[in-house]
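Long-time lurker. I teach an intro course on protein structure, and each term I like to show students one example going from raw sequence to a predicted 3D structure in token notation. This year I'd like something fresh instead of my usual example. Would anyone be willing to generate the tokens for the chain below so I can use it in lecture? Attribution to the forum is fine with me.
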Amino acid sequence: MALKDLKEYPDVSFIENMSSEEIQEHYMQAMQEKYQELTGKKLILHDADPLKLIAQADCLLLYQIAQYADRAGKMALLKYSYGDYLENIGALKGIRRIEGSVARTKLRFTLSIKRISTTVIPKGTRVTANDGVYFETEDILEILPGEISGEVAAYCKESGNIGNGYGLGSLNIMVDPVAYVDSVENIAVSEGGADRESDKTLAERIYLAPSAWSTAGPDDAYKYWVKTYDVAITDVRVFSPEPGIVEIYFLMQDGELPDQAIIDGVESFLRQEDVRPLTDLVMVKRPEERHYQIDATYYINESDRNRAAVIVKQVDAAVLEYIKWQRQKIGRDINPDELRKVMVMAGAKRVQVRSPTFEKIPRNCVAVLDGEAQVIYGGVEDD
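-- Reply from a regular --
Happy to contribute to a lecture. Here you go:
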């Protein structure tokens, strides 16, 4: 049986959800009762009474202390914990935050002429696309006599997504010139960079960790190991079409489909003896794409006429968020109601969605937009 999502667990409060007004009410009542107990007189405080003003200031301080106490309690709970507190919860289960990784590519250096001696490209030679991001060579490259070019691996100097997606030939400026080298270019799209693991992803791995303590092969154990392999993996689905066979599908950040290199890497990682049950045949696969189109017209209220330009931008942004949302989960049904909802929340009065229509997505597929979204602003209507 799969574990519940962390968000499904009940919310808790260590101060019984007490507001500042409630604290002040309890404080004033206690003070008046104590005063009457000690003096036998009833304490009446007017709004400008210095004693009441001091008491109100005390109540604000007490409320702040209560908030600190509430947060301190919640930091011990996985649902609420974050930052260093979350990492300490992870330590109890032997889980550490995954640090960011750098993007990698392969560079080709080309000489101006063939030479009779070896040309050495030093390790650490930097190249750029002239955008402030730098890659440097991982090893020494030797271009032997009679050869005109050579290839070497390179990595981004900064970890994270910033180094991903440099297309073929875009890294073509040498920061550190080398004699006789005429040009440089990347011959592979840069990839593999990932930001430092987020609190959300770390909390999910801590939650799934007990499932991985045994190689008994539950779904959650495989999810844990796949997410441990690469912090950029955000969604994992595990199926067993027949006993002893396990199929695993996963998505990268922002719903990007994994390339074959990372699929092979995950599959190799899962076949380690301390991960995979001896009886399981593990097959890692790329989710299949199910395409849909967006064709919609929306209208805004007459009272919002002066804000039309702003609303148009907000609706455009909402549509982009819907497209991203739709592809972030494997097996997420194509849902036009969600599109209509986000457009209305962005400021539209009424939305006509001609496409997509609702479609049930198979559990090993992901919904991907076909072409560009056709979203038309139809003008204003009476409120």
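Some talking points for your students: The first helix runs from residue 20 to 39. The longest strand covers residues 149-159.
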